[in-house]
Backbone:
């Protein structure tokens, strides 16, 4: 961990991705915590990646909105890597809130309103976000030293941002498969309705407790079928609410709302005043368990550790009344927890926040989220491992998910000859190039899958389970986030 970045004292690492690392730091001159995003060392010489990194800062500086992350400063380190100094989201992300139990219906409606305002501010300045998802919706306290503390939702991470009037390599196909608009996955010319699709997908997730799609690749996202109804597992939604969200998710952008304010207005009108209500200034409770800046640098050890993930101990439930447009919240919380509780599952995300997988809750006894070093590689890659015990790889149940720095699929996979019916290697005809093998009688089943997720990365997944249905469900839940190089 660096002691300083420019004039800023570094506290700890917040996270990292394919192109950058974000550090929590302290501005000693202005007595304030900040987030500093630094270009990854291995991309220093790539002029295109460097340009895209700097353009993110320029895009954010164009916008004056309380619902868009603010860039305060920019600079270069001694090794010429650029960095951006930004507002620090001390209340974490929407992904954190969903993991910890979800939102009430009024809170979800307020997130849609505030993020819609932030995206519209970007669009007015000619910028598309292109990667709206739970991890890129940030929460920050305003005026934390007074009783009137407010939490604001902000749009963050414009790493895939694109100027509407610019045609360049930024038109490359990119995005998060479960939230990306079909025209973006197809590499077509984009307009603000692409971000509307992503916000509608986020709305669906907050209400139904599951994303509208579980695409594992951008190829699968290019031609989506209509999403399943938002109800199920005891949930019910008025037709007006579902109609608004489904229109925002239309595969043909001409069928969506003309702009984001129209979508937000229609959604809130469909909820109705009785459902949305009048939110207090503290519309989202401050959560002390989320990432906090802590004491000033002089009071903190040099090697401050990352905080432990917040355990999902708060479980909440949705209820809906079939009375006009009114939705009532039972227990004061959102549908995400209902879906997870009903299915008795738990989602794990690696330390770099690039990979995630959902597994049966009983598998969470042996967990590693710190990455791995592939054979014949000197570099650590993003990875996670989750199992029902320390011996799950030989006699239990679990899953390994990891990236490999390779440009081609392997010709062979581990076929586990100890299984009574070793799997036959086959290619998948859906989505990105994939090789897969399913072995049975192990006892149980072992599935190996390798997918070409970018020009320089493979995604390797191994699932061991007592039954094939569970193994397939775990395999289908694996997701990658952000750019993989």
Residues:
């Amino acid at each position: 961990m660096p002691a300083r970045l420019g004039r800023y004292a570094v506290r700890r690492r917040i996270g990292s991705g394919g192109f950058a690392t974000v550090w929590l730091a302290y501005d000693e001159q202005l007595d304030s915590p900040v987030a500093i995003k630094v270009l990854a060392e291995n991309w220093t010489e790539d002029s295109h990646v460097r340009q895209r990194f700097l353009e993110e800062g320029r895009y954010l500086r164009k916008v004056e909105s309380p619902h868009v992350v603010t860039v305060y400063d920019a600079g270069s380190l001694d090794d010429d890597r650029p960095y951006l100094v930004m507002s620090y989201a001390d209340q974490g992300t929407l992904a954190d809130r969903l993991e910890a139990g979800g939102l009430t219906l009024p809170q979800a409606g307020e997130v849609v309103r505030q993020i819609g305002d932030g995206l519209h501010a970007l669009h007015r300045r000619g910028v598309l976000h292109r990667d709206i998802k739970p991890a890129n919706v940030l929460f920050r306290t305003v005026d934390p030293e007074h009783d009137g503390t407010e939490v604001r939702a902000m749009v963050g991470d414009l790493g895939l941002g694109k100027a509407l009037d610019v045609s360049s390599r930024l038109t490359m196909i990119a995005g998060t498969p479960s939230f990306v608009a079909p025209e973006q996955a197809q590499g077509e010319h984009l307009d603000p309705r692409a971000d509307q699709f992503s916000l509608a997908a986020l709305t669906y997730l907050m209400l139904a407790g599951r994303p509208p799609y579980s695409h594992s690749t951008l190829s699968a996202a290019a031609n989506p079928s209509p999403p399943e109804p938002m109800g199920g597992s005891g949930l019910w939604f008025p037709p007006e609410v579902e109609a608004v969200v489904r229109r925002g998710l239309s595969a043909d952008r001409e069928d969506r709302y003309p702009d984001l304010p129209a979508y937000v207005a229609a959604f809130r009108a469909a909820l109705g005043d009785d459902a949305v209500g009048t939110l207090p200034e503290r519309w989202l409770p401050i959560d002390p368990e989320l990432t906090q800046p802590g004491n000033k640098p002089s009071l903190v050890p040099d090697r401050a550790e990352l905080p432990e993930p917040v355990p999902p101990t708060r479980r909440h439930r949705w209820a809906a009344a079939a009375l006009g447009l009114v939705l009532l919240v039972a227990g004061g919380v959102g549908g995400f927890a209902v879906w997870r509780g009903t299915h008795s599952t738990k989602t794990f995300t690696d330390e770099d926040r690039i990979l995630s997988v959902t597994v049966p809750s009983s598998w969470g006894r042996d967990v590693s989220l710190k990455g791995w070093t592939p054979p014949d590689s000197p570099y650590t890659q993003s990875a996670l491992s989750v199992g029902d015990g320390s011996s799950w790889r030989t006699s239990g149940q679990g899953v390994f998910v990891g990236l490999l720095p390779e440009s081609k699929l392997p010709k062979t996979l581990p076929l586990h000859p100890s299984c009574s019916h070793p799997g036959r290697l086959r290619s998948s005809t859906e989505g990105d190039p994939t090789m897969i093998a399913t072995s049975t009688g192990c006892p149980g089943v072992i599935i190996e899958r390798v997918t070409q997720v970018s020009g320089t990365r493979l995604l390797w997944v191994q699932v061991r389970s007592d039954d094939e249905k569970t193994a397939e469900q775990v395999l289908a839940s694996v997701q990658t986030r952000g750019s993989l190089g």
About this structure: The domain at 344-480 is CATH 3.40.1000.10 (Protein Transport Mog1p; Chain A). The two ends are 24 Å apart (CA to CA).
